[in-house]
């Protein structure tokens, strides 16, 4: 097992609890439960059980109850996507996101997209926020505007050169309306495509479809920006080829034009110091890159795009120095030790909450105002996260049935089987000793997965198909 700490390195309370857990009856079963959750940091505890009945003979084929489990509960994974909350479940979420994005690039008939999508025009687009004031940065080989050549891990990167003149209100209002800006961008994108093709919007829709998958990421300055895969499809979606006019260049030009047109107006709030309406828009740094099929020349490959999106699907505002949970008041920010720049952004959310109560800025202060989904996709882009989770659950259920000699409930040759379940929530989380065990099991499993992925990469075919191993 790959451990970052041995029991001897633990604090006395955790060590004492670990010894209690290890010496308790059913430790092997507890260890098995933790392993089945992938080393979940905050497992959900359930009580109850299931019965598999033969409705014709009224006999019980199999019965399970948590009464015999350690502590009388069954532990299941929490499913939280945040890496700061649960690294184990975040790893699974990232893997699912990788497969979802990759299926829309390389094609996967089992996930709703044919392999021919590789021939469709598709780009990787980055839309950023505008400037709210100069910040410390690393502009290539030149020194920062402050005169310092900052190292990559410098704490001041992304913080304002002059905090007193930085537009904190504008920054959090922009984050809060970023999802609205994206919605307007997609509306204008379809209009720009139709105009460039010389068609009405109705005719353009009848001949082509747009599919996308996107993820939100926080810059060091605390502003949200979006990375999106945008793909041209035919009139019936990914199963049909796009029309001849749906070129990569037309898509690229339409994206840039649509981003320039998208606007969201925030009404004035004179009683709170905002006498004029604010017009929010995308920043000037708009990047549109073609995605290579089979690594055919371009730097940006399908593998790189899917990996990049998956990487940021489990991260949020805490990467800028905030916290990963709601905060009720400004005093708590000081007690939590939030650094100056993210603290001012969170305070701006709280100050603006009364001016724009419908935007719930105080509730989303820990997200620096952003209240949208971190990972979204259009309906026909590829599969869904729910479908991927269901496939995994069905596979594990089939394994369990095979081990117990039970029939498949979908097998109509044995249609009299009925499964009755009753579960009750009994809390969540782990004791300190259980948490130490879970962390070590998670690291052990992740190490094995990464090693398997490296072996797969070495043995991959000429396509470079290094799939993320869930």
From TrEMBL:
<dbReference type="InterPro" id="IPR048241">
    <property type="entry name" value="RepSA_streptomyces"/>
</dbReference>
<protein>
    <submittedName>
        <fullName>Replication initiation protein</fullName>
    </submittedName>
</protein>
<keyword id="KW-0175">Coiled coil</keyword>
<dbReference type="InterPro" id="IPR046828">
    <property type="entry name" value="RepSA"/>
</dbReference>
<dbReference type="Pfam" id="PF20199">
    <property type="entry name" value="RepSA"/>
</dbReference>
<feature type="coiled-coil region">
    <location>
        <begin position="438"/>
        <end position="465"/>
    </location>
</feature>
């Amino acid at each position: 097992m790959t451990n970052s700490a041995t029991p001897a390195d633990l604090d006395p309370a955790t060590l004492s609890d670990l010894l209690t857990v290890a010496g308790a009856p059913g430790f092997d079963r507890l260890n098995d439960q933790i392993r089945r959750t992938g080393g979940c940091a905050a497992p959900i505890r359930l009580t109850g059980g299931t019965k598999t009945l033969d409705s014709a003979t009224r006999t019980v084929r199999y019965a399970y109850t948590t009464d015999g489990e350690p502590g009388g509960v069954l532990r299941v994974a929490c499913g939280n996507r945040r890496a700061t909350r649960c690294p184990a479940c975040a790893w699974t979420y990232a893997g699912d996101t990788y497969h979802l994005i990759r299926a829309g690039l390389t094609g996967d008939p089992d996930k709703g997209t044919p392999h021919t999508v590789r021939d469709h025009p598709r780009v990787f687009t980055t839309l950023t926020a505008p400037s709210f004031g100069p910040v410390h940065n690393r502009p290539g080989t030149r020194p920062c505007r402050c005169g310092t050549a900052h190292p990559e891990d410098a704490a001041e990167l992304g913080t304002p050169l002059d905090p007193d003149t930085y537009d904190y209100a504008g920054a959090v209002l922009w984050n809060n309306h970023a999802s609205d800006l994206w919605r307007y961008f997609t509306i204008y994108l379809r209009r720009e495509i139709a105009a460039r093709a010389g068609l009405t919007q109705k005719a353009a829709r009848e001949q082509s479809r747009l599919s996308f998958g996107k993820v939100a990421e926080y810059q060091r300055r605390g502003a949200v920006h979006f990375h999106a895969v945008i793909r041209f499809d035919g009139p019936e979606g990914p199963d049909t080829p796009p029309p001849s006019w749906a070129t990569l260049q037309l898509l690229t030009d339409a994206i840039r034009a649509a981003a320039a047109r998208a606007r969201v107006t925030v009404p004035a709030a004179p009683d709170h110091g905002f006498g004029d309406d604010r017009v929010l828009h995308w920043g000037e740094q708009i990047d549109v890159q073609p995605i290579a099929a089979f690594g055919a020349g371009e730097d940006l490959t399908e593998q790189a795009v899917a990996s990049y999106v998956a990487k940021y699907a489990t991260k949020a505002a805490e990467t800028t120095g905030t916290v990963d949970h709601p905060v009720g008041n400004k005093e708590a920010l000081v007690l939590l030790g939030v650094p100056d720049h993210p603290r001012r952004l969170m305070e701006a959310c709280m100050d603006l909450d009364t001016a724009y109560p419908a935007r719930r800025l105080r509730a989303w202060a820990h997200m620096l105002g952003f209240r949208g989904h971190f990972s979204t996709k259009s309906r026909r882009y590829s599969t869904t996260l729910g479908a991927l989770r269901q496939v995994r659950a069905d596979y594990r259920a089939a394994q369990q049935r095979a081990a117990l000699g039970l029939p498949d409930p979908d097998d109509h040759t044995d249609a009299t089987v009925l499964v009755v379940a009753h579960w009750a929530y009994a809390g969540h989380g782990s004791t300190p000793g259980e948490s130490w065990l879970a962390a070590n099991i998670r690291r052990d499993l992740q190490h094995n997965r990464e090693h398997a992925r490296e072996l797969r990469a070495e043995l991959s075919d000429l396509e470079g198909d290094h799939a993320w191993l869930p």
